[in-house]
């Protein structure tokens, strides 16, 4: 176990590139493996990227052509943000295998902005102006926000990672039931059977294949599931035949940004939520790839998120954040190279520049995505449980932290209307189970494991720096205060 801290410390000390390249995160894979693994990441997150622009664009009243343009712009800006996160520039980018894309946390407040804008033609410029300001403010705040990492020992990170997986599973279940919740065939046996078949195909490939085929089991499962869906009339190829070959997201296509105070405040709140979730995602991914995310890594990752968000509106895109679903793909395939994800970012850019290429991914039926999503998102939850095993759950305090935090984080999933009486601004935070569960875990950890330790040392697990291993002889000392 001593090797992992050495890799991290070598990075902090500015070691030679050869030292860094020994870690799987910095490996470059053979071209075919790089391309297919990168495409697998795109397939896993495509639906999440295109959903927000489709929802917001429809609310604004955009035509089909304009909706396609807005979707392509979101793919293009997601690719740029992914480049920032994986490859990095200066002190920007976590340099971890992170996929960035449009955060769904901003959908509700953006719809509220649309509703309160008299002239719908001004709605998107107002949204874009608010995102630019929120992104720049978040960029400036990133170094201070990253210092919260000291309050994320394994009992907190394990809880949050588990919540990420549990929060994503309903998305997979929704996909499995079909593309349109209002349709009569939503949740039909046909859709559920396709999801189940895809799930079984992925599991069989993972169980009975080896090497490269095993690592791209999800991608193969999506292809096989799509082919199986053709006789059922579920696979729609019309987006491919109707899409243009080339298209560029013209800067400020919908007009120059407008700056409205109420909209800016709303998107700043979303930015705080997004930064909280991104911090949790970085801690989760750091554990999975065995390169724990320290304060510098988180600060650099948050700078990439926020700068990507600030740049995105220039090309008609929305606020960007790390995609938790791709963490499940890294956990399952064990392909930890950040260059694989950067390759996925390249695909996203190309899809943004070529609508016909983007439409190829959209051919995959939603139930097929749902079947694969069960494996991906369940893998995230399993990784969280693995982290909790190391968190000292033999201590009563830690059991309480996990129990209450999970309960708080699951509220938006099991009781979606629980916070219906709260103001819309508050619901932006409360409706995110990851954010509420994360805040609850951090606060409870402070109360139980930081305050008054001298009165109950035998029952308290000391807070630790990220990546620090827990040993059976671990005891609490006054010197462990952070």
Automatic annotation (TrEMBL):
Belongs to the nucleobase:cation symporter-2 (NCS2) (TC 2.A.40) family. The chain crosses the membrane at residues 42-61, 67-84, 96-114, 126-145, 152-174, 186-205, 217-234, 254-273, 339-362, 368-388, 400-422, 428-448. Residues 17-26 have a biased composition (Basic and acidic residues). It is a multi-pass membrane protein. This is Nucleobase:cation symporter-2 family protein. Residues 1-30, 457-482 are annotated as: Disordered. It holds the Pfam family Xan_ur_permease. It is found in: Cell membrane. PANTHER family: PURINE PERMEASE C1399.01C-RELATED (PTHR42810), URIC ACID TRANSPORTER UACT (PTHR42810:SF4).
């Amino acid at each position: 176990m001593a090797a992992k801290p050495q890799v991290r410390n070598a990075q902090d000390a500015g070691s030679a590139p050869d030292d860094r390249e020994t870690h799987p995160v910095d490996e470059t894979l053979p071209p075919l493996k790089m391309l297919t693994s990168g495409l697998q990441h795109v397939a896993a997150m495509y639906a999440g990227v295109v959903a927000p622009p489709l929802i917001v664009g429809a609310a604004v009243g955009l035509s089909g052509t304009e909706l396609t343009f807005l979707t392509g712009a979101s793919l293009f800006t997601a690719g740029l943000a992914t480049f920032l996160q994986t490859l990095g520039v200066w002190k920007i980018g976590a340099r971890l295998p992170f996929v960035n894309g449009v955060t769904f946390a901003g959908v509700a407040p953006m719809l509220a902005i649309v509703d309160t804008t008299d002239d719908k033609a001004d709605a998107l410029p107002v949204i874009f102006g608010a995102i630019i300001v929120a992104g720049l403010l978040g960029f400036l705040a990133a170094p201070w926000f990253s210092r919260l990492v000291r309050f994320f020992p394994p009992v907190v990170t394990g809880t949050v990672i588990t919540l990420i997986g549990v929060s994503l599973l309903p998305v997979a279940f929704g996909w499995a039931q079909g593309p349109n919740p209002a349709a009569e065939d939503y949740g039909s046996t046909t859709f559920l059977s396709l999801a189940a078949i895809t799930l079984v195909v992925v599991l069989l490939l993972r169980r009975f294949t080896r090497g490269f085929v095993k690592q791209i089991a999800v991608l193969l499962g999506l292809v096989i599931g799509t082919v199986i869906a053709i006789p059922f009339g579920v696979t729609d190829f019309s987006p491919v035949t109707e899409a243009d070959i080339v298209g560029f997201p013209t800067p400020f296509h919908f007009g120059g940004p407008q700056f409205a105070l109420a909209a800016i405040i709303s998107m700043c709140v979303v930015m705080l939520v997004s930064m909280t979730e991104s911090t949790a995602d970085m801690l989760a991914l750091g554990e999975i790839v065995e390169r724990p995310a320290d304060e510098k890594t988180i600060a650099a990752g948050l700078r990439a998120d926020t700068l990507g968000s600030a740049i995105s509106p220039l090309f008609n895109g929305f606020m960007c954040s790390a995609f938790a679903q791709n963490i499940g793909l890294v956990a399952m395939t064990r392909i930890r190279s950040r260059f694989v994800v950067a390759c996925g970012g390249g695909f996203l850019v190309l899809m943004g520049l070529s609508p016909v290429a983007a439409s190829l991914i959209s051919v995959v039926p939603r139930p097929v995505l749902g079947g694969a999503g069960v494996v991906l998102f369940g893998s995230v939850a399993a990784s969280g449980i693995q982290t909790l095993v190391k968190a000292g759950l033999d201590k009563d305090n830690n059991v309480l932290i996990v129990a209450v935090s999970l309960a708080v984080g699951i509220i938006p999933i099991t009781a979606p209307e629980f916070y219906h009486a709260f103001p819309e601004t508050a619901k932006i935070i409360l409706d995110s189970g990851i954010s509420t569960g994360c805040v609850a875990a951090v606060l409870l950890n402070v109360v139980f494991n930081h305050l008054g330790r001298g009165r109950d040392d035998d029952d308290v697990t000391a807070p630790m720096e990220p990546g620090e291993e827990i040993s059976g002889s671990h005891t609490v000392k006054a010197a462990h205060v952070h």
